[in-house]
Amino acid sequence: MKLYMSVDMEGISGLPDDTFVDSSKLNYERGRMIMTDEANYVIEEAFKNGCSEVLVNDSHSKMNNLLIERLHPEAQLISGDVKPFSMVQGLDDTCAGAMFLGYHARASMKGVMSHSMIFGVRHFYINDQPVGELGFNAYVAGYFGVPVLMVAGDSQAAAEAEELIPNVATAAVKETISRSAVKCLTPEKAGRLLKEQTAFALRNKDKVKPLTPPDRPVLSIEFANYGQAEWANLMPGTEIKPGTTVVRYEAKDILEAYQAMLVMTELAMRTTFS
Length: 274
Prior knowledge:
This protein has helices spanning 28-48, 133-143, 155-164, 187-203, 226-232, 254-268; strands at 2-7, 53-58, 76-78, 97-103, 121-126, 129-131, 148-154, 169-178, 181-184, 218-223, 238-240, 246-250. Helix content is 30%, strand content 24%. It is globular, with a radius of gyration of 18 Å. It is built from 6 helices and 12 strands. α1 runs parallel beside α4. It is α/β, with parallel strands linked by helices. It folds into 2 domains: 2-115 and 133-207, Rossmann fold (3-Layer(aba) Sandwich), CATH 3.40.50; 218-270, Dipeptide transport protein (Gyrase A, domain 2). Keywords: Aminopeptidase, Hydrolase, Metal-binding, Protease, Zinc.
């Protein structure tokens, strides 16, 4: 059985703010080590519970955070940027299940370091369904018929996953106090919880169904300001909803919608505020 893991950073235990997740800041190297250790807890338990292959995709920022020299020796790692499918690179129908580790709540919601891809996004929608990184990635998994078996992160990410994916296992390794403060489990205790929930998720896998995306989905992105919407609207096929900062794109499938989101958010980041 092949397991896919997408590993983000903001939802890792012990990481309360951007000094742990920004490569230019003080606590980043500590954050990388804790992130790699958390991934290892899940990988080790996956191999103990019937997985013959574990594919790990580094899914934070430049996507080169996980320390391969510390990673479980039997895992495979996708690392680096640019990836055509970003946080879900390598996920396909050969995977029996997916797990999302280190995840956070979507933009505009309560949760430690909550956001959706970039800090200029207020909301993502697929048709009328609001989604963040977690939901969008789960839809891509669903396109390939792959269920998301477990989501680990802060308490708000866990709640978001439970609302979106029936019977999903969750591991809340820290409790949100504010967007930059959390009550954390220690790494050792977080590791025990991750092992327990990984084992449970793999036993429970037949009860979790893939999150099936809609046919011909309409992607809508609400940006923080009009300049970001203008940049995103440079992508062919998009339109700005009049009187708003919402940019719409009618996609042929969820994979095209996902890549459209990547292009639109990359363009939006070119906006200046001076």
